[in-house]
Design brief:
EC number: 1.6.5.9
Bound molecules: flavin-adenine dinucleotide, nicotinamide-adenine-dinucleotide
Strand order of the largest sheet: 5-2-1-9-21
Structural class: alpha/beta
Shape: globular
Catalytic activity: a ubiquinone + NADH + H(+) = a ubiquinol + NAD(+); a quinone + NADH + H(+) = a quinol + NAD(+)
Number of strands: 25
Distance between the termini: 42 Å
Helix content: 40-55%
Number of domains: 3
Family: Belongs to the NADH dehydrogenase family.
Enzyme class: oxidoreductase
Radius of gyration: 27 Å
Keywords: FAD, Flavoprotein, NAD, Oxidoreductase, Transit peptide
Largest sheet: 5 strands, parallel
């Protein structure tokens, strides 16, 4: 299966094609004898088939048009109902947006708080750094979703910075001033709001492990703003390297692209960068392309520690073929503006010049999570996030749930975990709230345990793009896992993500970006 997946796929299609050709040849030969008779019986069948195909196409088109019409023309919504409880959702990521999508807003007055007024489809974020996909194709404005709920939903574009659990009060801080300029944490305008129920889905923030110079000089790959910054820095490095009056050493520095962290984020970014180099830079910067080097630095003995050994080997050999240098057992100790320091496997230190450095070493808690933990200090004893029970209730708290990367639920920080938790939580809140519509004082926090089964994650497997139109997959199959890598897996990766995108709008935009790239290449403009 593994690594011969593409060959297997090819064999299958050849065999299938052969059968079709043989059948066609047979039918042509047979038609020699009683051809007129056969043509007669075939015609009605063909006509029926044509009608079915035509009907299906028309049905599909009508349904799509109706979906588009409905999206553009939302119905009138119910206003906030003072007799209902207020449910505040923190965040517009995988967890909170899934809750919002599936929540029956008739049961609650829902308020959403997030510094980001859109949902971001993170699995395709590495593709945005080099223009394989345009940024807006993987962003879905949260107001489109809110406007389609039965009852109005209130949205605050702000960060929750503090919580007073006794008063059930949250402090929100705006990240932009009245002129639209970004403001530093602690300097924005603040607002206070109250909640009856609180769902915390604030994700994580980049972990620099306190490494000096990372915040100042490295690029991250977590939010859309990061992808935009990487694209600008990448093109700046290449354009600066094309000046004639710089030394060769300086040109080589500018064209040295470094990725720190061999987890899936670092691997996918390095893969995209390689494609950009081979497909586009070679065409438009032929004098520079040969000098571009990509290096991936990983502290552990191999990349992708969470993947199957065969997939690790396959990724490492693909990177070798693609001339991406992998430095394993090598830890970045400091980042300066033009070079970084590593600790080599033998313990010695080296200084390596770079033009662009992307830091992808995982995540840690958001500051607000620490504030929430402080409120329930006796039960919240783990600094990596919010400890939750099997019903996603924040331990030690009342009427507070947490999900996704900010919750310590025993599962990996993955989009699929956050989305499944979001579905589970909304389903249970809907059911309990509906059950207790007659009794507004019902205690959902307690009822959830009485009336629900605990949350259980069901893994759909892992997929990662590794460059040169190859992907790797580790998929559950009955009681075991199957692994696959190569070009066929890449097409599987594409179709899986296309079907998982948030909306028809997103899927259409991403598909058209892929087609656009195929015909016109990537856009190499700086912005
Ligand atoms: P997020 O999606 O990070 O959302 C957090 C939300 O909270 C955001 O809207 C943020 O603006 C908001 N927020 C932050 N602070 C505050 C605050 N103080 N107050 C209010 N709101 C706040 N996982 C997979 O399973 N498969 C993949 O292929 C995959 N690819 C990835 C690729 C990349 C480049 C990255 C970075 C991650 C990838 N992941 C993938 C991991 C996945 O994105 C996360 O596990 C997932 O986003 C977690 O969802 P979440 O809802 O917990 O947090
Ligand atoms: P990660 O935690 O998975 O990997 C970070 C890597 O950086 C680790 O291997 C670590 O050893 C290395 N590292 C840390 N400090 C270092 C240093 N100073 N020098 C060199 N190497 C260092 O982080 P990630 O890749 O950002 O992923 C975060 C989460 O998102 C994970 O749960 C991951 O599974 C998920 N994710 C999944 C996908 C996918 O499924 N395709 C894609 C991206 C992210």
């Amino acid at each position: 299966m593994f690594s011969s997946a593409s060959r297997a796929g090819f064999r299958l299609s050849r065999a299938a094609t052969g059968t079709v050709v043989r059948r066609m040849a047979m039918s042509t030969l047979n038609s020699g004898g009683n051809g007129a008779q056969q043509a007669k019986t075939r015609t009605p069948r063909l006509r029926t088939l044509k009608r079915i195909v035509f009907g299906a196409a028309l049905g599909g088109l009508t349904y799509t048009s109706w979906l588009m019409y409905r999206n553009r023309n939302p119905e009138t919504q119910l206003p906030f109902d003072p007799s209902k409880k207020t449910l505040v959702l923190l965040g517009t990521g995988w967890g909170s947006t899934t809750v919002l999508k599936n929540l029956d807003t008739e049961n609650f007055n829902v308020v959403v708080v997030s510094p980001r007024n859109y949902f971001l489809f993170t699995p395709l974020l590495p593709s945005c750094t080099v223009g394989t996909i345009e940024n807006r194709s993987i962003m879905e404005p949260v107001r489109l979703l809110m406007r389609h709920k039965t009852r109005e939903v209130k949205f605050y574009e702000a960060e929750c910075t503090d919580i007073d659990a006794a008063k059930k009060e949250l402090t929100l801080e705006r990240r932009v001033d009245s002129d639209g300029n970004e403001v530093k944490p602690g300097e924005g305008e603040t607002t206070k709001i109250n909640y009856d129920y609180l769902v915390v889905g604030v994700g994580g923030t980049v972990n620099t492990f306190g490494t000096p110079g990372v915040e100042q000089h490295a690029c991250f790959l977590k939010e859309m703003g990061d992808a935009r910054k990487i694209r600008r820095r990448l093109m700046d490095s290449v354009e600066s390297a094309s000046f004639d009056d710089i030394t060769d050493a300086e040109r080589d520095r500018l064209l040295h692209m470094v990725v720190v962290g061999g987890g899936p984020t670092g691997i996918e970014y390095a893969g995209e960068l390689h494609d950009f180099l081979v497909d586009d830079l070679t065409q438009w910067y032929p004098e520079l392309a040969d000098r571009v080097r990509i290096t991936l630095v990983e502290a552990l003995p191999n990349v992708l520690p969470a993947f199957d050994k065969k997939l690790i080997d396959y990724t490492q050999s693909t990177f070798k073929e693609n001339k991406i240098t992998i430095l394993t057992r090598t830890m970045v100790k400091e980042v300066k503006d033009k070079s970084f320091t590593v600790q080599n496997p033998d313990g010695s230190r080296s200084e390596i010049p770079y033009g662009l450095l992307v830091w992808a070493t995982g995540i840690k808690s958001q500051p607000v999570v620490n504030k929430i933990r402080e409120q329930f200090a006796a039960a919240q004893t783990n600094g990596r996030g919010l400890l939750v029970d099997e019903y996603l209730r924040v331990k030690g708290a009342k009427d507070v749930w947490a999900l996704g990367d900010c919750a310590l639920s025993g599962y990996a920080p993955l989009a699929q975990v956050a989305a499944q938790q979001g579905k589970w939580l909304s389903r249970h809140l809907n059911r309990l709230a509906a059950d207790n519509a007659q009794n507004p004082e019902a205690d959902l926090h307690a009822l959830i345990e009485e009336k629900s089964r605990p949350f259980k994650y069901s893994s759909q497997g892992s997929l990662a793009y590794i460059g040169s139109e190859k992907a790797i997959a580790d998929l559950p199959f009955f009681n075991r896992n199957i692994t696959a890598g190569g070009i066929a897996t890449f097409w599987f990766w594409k179709s899986a993500y296309l079907s998982e995108l948030f909306s028809l709008r997103n899927s259409t935009l991403v598909a058209s970006d892929w087609v656009k790239r195929f015909f016109f290449g990537r856009d190499i403009s700086r912005e």
